[in-house]
Amino acid sequence: KLALIHTSMVFVKAETMMSDIFAEVMPDVELVNIVDDSLLPDVMAAGGITPAVQCRMTAYVKAAQETGANAAFSLCSSLGPAIDVARKEVTIPVIKIDDAMAEKAVETADRIGVVATVPTTLGPTVDLIKEKAAAKARRSRSPRSSSPARSETTSRCPTGRSRWRTSSGPRSWRRNWKRVDMPPRPSMAISPRPSGNAPWSA
Question: Looking at the predicted structure, is the pLDDT value of residue 185 above 90?
Fold first, then answer.
């Protein structure tokens, strides 16, 4: 049994992509949906995770365990830091929607672009990539891989002047663009559009 923690009704009512993926890769697994569509709006309004949001997310992770689920799966990148805290309160695995993406990115690229649909996703996603890069560096124990990943915000300056690092694409994409420079590894281009069945994350 897998408990899905949603911050939107999109994957429950409108978009069947996630349910189709689960039906294909794990047809025998029972899915339990836990939905609070006020979580992400609250995070966006506050500009980050508040104590009240953290309390609710922890309660939902605990509820996932109480349903008898073998694992919980959070479908919102903006709530990633809240998942880090909630994981400590349960014994089942709690997976972020972008855990595997971040691990794959640091394994295959030395420069990673993060494109987000909401500003509150950028910080958690960049931090997750740095966390995965640091874990890889510890595993390899390579001097060239031991420096922490660097991040750079390429959003509009407070003065109103632009310092975009990309010269093409819609301005809305450039406004929510961050670049993470990774320790040297074989380079691979990472597309901002999902590949295959990889889902978008909020």
Answer: no
Which tens digits make up the pLDDT trace of 107-156?
998 889 888 888 898 889 999 999 999 988 887 765 454 444 444 433 33
Q: Which residues, including other chains, have CB under 8 Å from residue 38's CB and lie 6 or more apart?
A: none
Which are the contacts of 185, defined by CB distance < 8 A and separation ≥ 6? 106, 107, 108, 109, 110, 145
Residue matched to tokens 């891989």: 145
What is the token pair recorded at 41? 């709006």
Query: Which tokens in the block code for residue 113?
Result: 């672009």
Helix (H) or strand (E) holding 174: helix 171-175
Answer whether 79's CB lies under 8 Å from 7's CB: yes
- CA neighbor of 124 nearest in space, from 25, 72, 57: 57
pTM for the model stands at 0.65
In angstroms, the CA 7 to CA 74 distance is 9
Measured distance CA(173)–CA(119) in Å, rounded: 11
Residues 187 and 2: their CA atoms lie apart, in Å, by 35
Residue 163 identity: R
Phi, psi of 166 (to 5 degrees): -115, 145
